[in-house]
Write a structure and sequence with these properties.
By secondary structure, the chain is of the alpha+beta class. Helices cover about 35% and strands about 20% of the residues. It contains 3 helices and 5 strands. Strands 1-2-4-3-5 form a 5-stranded mixed β-sheet, covered by helices on one side. It is globular, with a radius of gyration of 14 Å. The two termini are about 20 Å apart.
Length: about 120
């Protein structure tokens, strides 16, 4: 998920790797909590969360049209969506509960939510 099977995305450098591992820990928590949320509301759909983009070194970031100061470059941001198709509910849940204390790019209208490790800021895609 971190590299999207692209060898150019293999991270190097302690700081980047540490940032990726920290973000991975938080994503694991999100996955567990999303599954619990769905179960508690009686929803038997898949709780799986897919990652569309994570670590992007500067060259790859430019190729995909990312902003120059993208947190993807640091490995501390990812774009995700719920496999069950409930993107709007996932975004609401992240915004109000699971990711309320971190940065969230509201991109449900484009099929993803941007999660990054900064403080509680919001923006629309």
């Amino acid at each position: 998920e971190v590299t999207q099977n692209d060898s150019r995305r293999i991270p190097n450098g302690y700081t980047t790797i540490r940032s990726i591992l920290n973000h991975a820990f938080h994503l694991d928590v999100i996955r567990e909590e999303w599954a619990r949320y769905l179960k508690n509301k009686g929803d038997s759909s898949s709780p799986a969360i897919a990652i569309t983009s994570w670590y992007r070194p500067p060259l790859v970031n430019r190729e995909v049209g990312g902003v120059e100061n993208s947190r993807h470059i640091l490995g501390s941001a990812s774009d995700s969506y719920p496999v069950n198709g409930q993107i709007w509910e996932y975004q609401r849940w992240l915004n109000n509960t699971a990711w309320s204390d971190r940065a969230l790019g509201l991109g449900a209208n484009k099929g993803f939510c941007h999660l990054d490790e900064r403080g509680p800021i919001r923006w629309n895609y």
